[in-house]
Amino acid sequence: MAEKKTKGKKKTATAEAVTESAAESQETGRTTGEGAAPTGEAKEDFQALQRRREDLALDVTRAFPDKYRISGEMEGCSDAAKIDLLERLVRTRTFDARMRRLFRQGRFEGTYYSQIGQEACDVVIAAQLEKTDFVGPSHRDLGASVGKGIPLTALAAQVYNRVDSPDGGRYTACHYWHPEYWVMQPSTSIMMNWIAATGAAFGFKMLKKKGVAVAFGGDGATAHGDFHEGCNFAGVHRLPIVYIIQNNLWAESLPLSLTTALTDLAHRADAYGFPGVTIDGNDVISVWNTTRKALQRARGGDGPTLIEMKTYRWFGHSDIDPADYRSEDEVEDWTERDPLPRYVAWLMENEVLDEERLEGIRQAIRQEVEQAVEFAEASARPEPEAFLSEVFVHEYPGFDVRAGR
Amino acid sequence: MAEKKTKGKKKTATAEAVTESAAESQETGRTTGEGAAPTGEAKEDFQALQRRREDLALDVTRAFPDKYRISGEMEGCSDAAKIDLLERLVRTRTFDARMRRLFRQGRFEGTYYSQIGQEACDVVIAAQLEKTDFVGPSHRDLGASVGKGIPLTALAAQVYNRVDSPDGGRYTACHYWHPEYWVMQPSTSIMMNWIAATGAAFGFKMLKKKGVAVAFGGDGATAHGDFHEGCNFAGVHRLPIVYIIQNNLWAESLPLSLTTALTDLAHRADAYGFPGVTIDGNDVISVWNTTRKALQRARGGDGPTLIEMKTYRWFGHSDIDPADYRSEDEVEDWTERDPLPRYVAWLMENEVLDEERLEGIRQAIRQEVEQAVEFAEASARPEPEAFLSEVFVHEYPGFDVRAGR
Amino acid sequence: MAAITYIDAINRTLHEEMRRDDTTFLIGEDTGIYGGVFKATRGLLEAFGPERVIDSPISESLIAGMTVGAAMVGCRPLPEIQFADFISPAFDQIVQQLARYRWRTNGTYAMPVTIRCPWGGGVGGGVFHSQSNEAWFMNVPGLVMVAPSTVRDAAGLLRAAIRSDDPVLYWEHKKLYRSIKDDLPEGEEIVTEIGRAHVAREGGDVTAITFGYLLHETLKAAEALSGDGIEVEVIDLRTLLPLDTPTILESVSKTGKAVVIHEAPKVGGIGGEIAAILAEECFWELDAPVRRLTGFNTSFPAAKTMEDYYMPNAGEIAAALRATAET
Amino acid sequence: MAAITYIDAINRTLHEEMRRDDTTFLIGEDTGIYGGVFKATRGLLEAFGPERVIDSPISESLIAGMTVGAAMVGCRPLPEIQFADFISPAFDQIVQQLARYRWRTNGTYAMPVTIRCPWGGGVGGGVFHSQSNEAWFMNVPGLVMVAPSTVRDAAGLLRAAIRSDDPVLYWEHKKLYRSIKDDLPEGEEIVTEIGRAHVAREGGDVTAITFGYLLHETLKAAEALSGDGIEVEVIDLRTLLPLDTPTILESVSKTGKAVVIHEAPKVGGIGGEIAAILAEECFWELDAPVRRLTGFNTSFPAAKTMEDYYMPNAGEIAAALRATAET
Ligand SMILES: Cc1ncc(C[n+]2csc(CCOP(=O)(O)OP(=O)(O)O)c2C)c(N)n1
Ligand SMILES: Cc1ncc(C[n+]2csc(CCOP(=O)(O)OP(=O)(O)O)c2C)c(N)n1
Ligand SMILES: [Mg+2]
Ligand SMILES: [Mg+2]
Predict the structure, then answer these.
(1) ipTM value of the model?
(2) Labelling D95: which of B114, B327, B356, C282 has CA 20 to 30 A away?
(3) Is the minimum distance from the CB of A221 to ligand 1 under 6 angstroms?
(4) How far, in Å, CA of C210 to CA of B88, rounded?
(5) What is the pTM of this model?
(6) Domain residues for B99?
(7) Could you give the CA distance from residue C250 to residue C253 in angstroms, rounded to a whole number?
């Protein structure tokens, strides 16, 4: 432990560079380190992964021993695509950290749901999708939207509940979506997106359209009946869908041990007859390779895959939650497993990236984020009455939206 | 297959004797046969059983090769208890067959849900319970009530919806229950009993009462969200409960392959961190030994067990269903696996039972059933207004049960 | 031209509309192989195959909720809830997701979903096969509910619902399935406008407002009263949500008196909303208290003696109408 | 004696009643370790341990449904639904099982279960954290619903609900949690009788019927009107189901005029049932149409501009009361 902490303190310029905006939001340092040998896990196939689950412990330290480094190869990923992915990750992180600060400054109402720490889990798969593939995000999936290419302006307007959000400010802040990018509007109500994405996958199949669906959910969400009904149906009909569980060990204040008697939530898939795998959700390479295979399975007619990604949210459930139910050690251990510097270090080792290029990316994205903030702040607050429409498509003689006033 | 059928035709006097009343209801013969060697399965522990699941096929013919015979030992079961169990089985079968006939004769309204063929699945565990253990039956669990000792008179009155049923005829026919015997009133709505039994198990634990709960459900019911929420909670809290799935291959007209992508539903338990086992639900010895162990686990604080029992309903979903969605071969194959003659033959081989005693049992039970029928038919139809009470415990100034008339 | 039953009208319309629009699909329990527990979906699996006629697992939340995603990618889903009583596990998906999705997305998506719900008492089914639970949905913005009372409307409202771009709960009354018949010309595309009530009988003395099976009891009662010189105007609601306020107000403004009749318990039933509309919007034209004749404030009982007593009948309806007319 | 808030009153009563009766237990999401997302259950885990204070998985159907079995074996369960908006996944268990179980078993079992539901708008939460969904349950026989509007009733109705042998939905208004205070003597066992409404203000010109946060807006409106010589009688419903018909009728018989005020959309809201009772049972005493002032017939919007517009306020209430009084 002591040794680990020492390691944690050895920040490299690279790590600081990438996570600067996040670091602004809290004191914990993010690091890369000289780590152990490659696990080679990303190269294993699903069968092997499934078998390996038996050996993984909840203590991810044991399962994924190298906190600071990642290794292996990203299958079928060009250098340009690797950089593009990096940009999406940095964009997500930078936007998120900026929003946290703006919230603390009281620039928008309500609360803010930070995803910092979990970006790899949804950015990496979203970046691989076609525009008309369907994404069913949950309440903490900024990365799904950024990963799929939704402009930050629309996302910032959503945070601010302004007229330029896709719903004109009537729906809920931080619930990112965009019809043009086929990211559905997440329900606050847990697992509705899971069922809807299952329905979309069914629709693709029924209409004989190409297209896959991706659904996101948390560890806590897997206890909900709709998790079961969705997965079961998808298994029976071999639907083109990838289910992703971001197991960040907590559901608000509920520790994993009160959500499940399992060690690894990928076992939930055993009940549905399709593969379930557990991976390090903070390892971009592992996430890339696993989601890539799952998408291939979906596109190839082989049915659903459930991927459990071990990850962590650095901050509270939302930004009004001090998250004091977690130990400092746990938080520190996990913030050290920051997916971004690990990926950056790997890119640099492989000479896909250098400091200069990284700096350029950072600068550009910072600007992009600032523009998005300006855009959102300049966007009008909705007219008070602007929500008095679109209850129905058709008109009905007895319906008056204003009848109560 | 041809050979199987030949075997099926070799009825023994014993088999006919036990199932005579059932045979009255349809032409298919029930048989015992000279079978293969004991599988020894009942002696395996849960770990082993779980591993063996991998080898079981949906085709129970392969999994449980001996249709006609059972073997092994019933652990901790005295000869008297074995005979007592036989009586409960015969009582269930005889009552059920009689009700079917009465329904066809138009002696009561509505419909009738026959359990014939599945008796071992619920009689055997119910017979092992203390009176204050909690039973949460489903819509096809006559045997849970008979097994737990509810008098046939009350059950017949339930079929007839007469005043002498525990609910005075206001609740639904064939939904057997009795408060004194701690058999809860099943909801027609699938899996509500599963959740209620889970709550009862929680209550036992919370109140530090001895007592276990047993919940019954069908293969089809396992697709419902409440199946998941109940099992998951029980797993997290290691509740004293035994979950039994009677996998009779059909949920009304829905074949198993449209309920699940699994071969064996016991795998559903893998999602909850407690053991799930698959057994031949028509093998009384196997059911006895497995449920006995599961009850010991529950009583010993080791938490839940899910037991999948492969079984078959001989007749329609209810007696107005011709069940023509099933093949004749399938029905014949399964009716040959009748749990009763297999048990009877084993008892005789082991000299616990002889023809004379069996005949005595049959006679006595027939009389008991006739008395129950007489009782139900003599029981008054409820007063038309008798349901206008017990909406609330307390009185409220604004509540009038008759306000609408 | 042979007369067909209410359930035949449903079955025929499903066939026709599924043939017409290959983005439609059916999903429900026992809807395929079995053709539905009431046989309403008979022949559809054979006609359209297992891709479009889904025998669903026992998962009502999925059945209702999956339609939202399916609709977003271009389908027109036709889920069936086997008995209306089992709509409660699907309640969450219907009221929070399906009904509100258009509004939430600021009009981006339509939800052209028709959920068929066999409802109503009088069929010997006890509490889980007899409920009239339409009132649960009355306070849910974005939802449409229709309830045909005739063979013609069974076809016409179903076609209108399927073609509608709003989510519709279609309440089909089990007791009407085979008890009424009508001549529906094959090939005629009957469409009953959603949102409009129907004056099933004209009269000037008192307005009876009802729907479903009880329309027929009410018409009987009206005939009986006519002999005594009391002329009842009978409104068949057809659409329960949004209610056709103009038609209701017009009739009651004329008669000055109203009785609302439904099977569900009185407290919180849809009769309350109708009586409230009258108390608010045609108060000055009312000449008598608005009466509600309904089921009892209990669950639905099983034994035949009790069930017969529970169901309002023509005699009781006539008495209520007469009492109001004579106020 | 220090004044305590509405949420303190809830917290204190939970402590007292759990101490008093060791068959009680709490189950809900984030109710233990976190003390509830609003801190209503603060300190209970420490006081009563993890056997009696359960941090449940995200399984609302289980949370509500498990109480039925627990009650049967002798417990007095106190489930919490984190936001009333998330009661819909539990709807099935509540309306089909919990509410009806006593009736179904012919009175064999009582269901002494109190489900706490934080509800209401005006807290910046958008459609899933602002709903007023009490009307969904109005047509469910066997269920009781209470909704305290004051600190005293927050304690008194909660204690009465916990001790009641009927299943009670206890609607606690989020906007009142910390916005109102009262002196509640420590140790006094405040009990507010269930089934009785409270005349919160007497007046002879018009009756305002409301509950929850809007009671306070209504009282403000009444004060304002009093200056103009219009005396409003304000009824705080306290119990929503079964409604206290006698108290409502007595007041409206006196004033001859009534306005019902609630947050939920008008169509199908509980105002309909109340207006219907008036139209049926004190028609002859009514001197003006029964008006309903309610939320809009939409879902609840998020942006502050819209939210402010959605919530009825004292000004609008005063205008409605004045218009009715002057009819
Ligand atoms: C049906 C429902 N119940 C409760 C909630 C309140 N709630 C919002 S998020 C959350 C925890 C989610 O935990 P998890 O699924 O692990 O996702 P995470 O927040 O960790 O990303 C809860 C209980 C909800 N939104 N919906
Ligand atoms: C929630 C709900 N949905 C649908 C039904 C209608 N239904 C009654 S029994 C049944 C099939 C049950 O199949 P299974 O669980 O396999 O039990 P089995 O009848 O085979 O014993 C169905 C769909 C119901 N009772 N409850
Ligand atoms: Mg989580
Ligand atoms: Mg079955």
Answers:
(1) 0.95
(2) B114
(3) yes
(4) 51
(5) 0.94
(6) 77-199+223-229+281-294+311-381
(7) 5
